[in-house]
Amino acid sequence: MEKKQLTPEEEQAQLELRIKQLEKELEHANLQKLALNTLIDIAEKSEGIQIRNRKKTKPPKS
Length: 62
Hints:
The chain has 62 residues and is an all-alpha fold. The chain contains one helix and no strands.
C-alpha cells in the first residue's frame, strides 16, 4: 500500500500537530516529576527518613 504524497502545507500542518503533542507530553512529564519530587520531600520530612540517595560517588576510572 502506497503512502499518499503530502503537499508541503499538509506536511507542515502534521509537523506542527506533532510538535504540539510533544510539548503536551513534555509538560505532563515535568508536572509528574514535580509531583513525585514533592511527594518524596514530604515523606522525608514527615517520616524523618532519607529516601533519595544523596551520596556523590565518583565515576569508575576506565
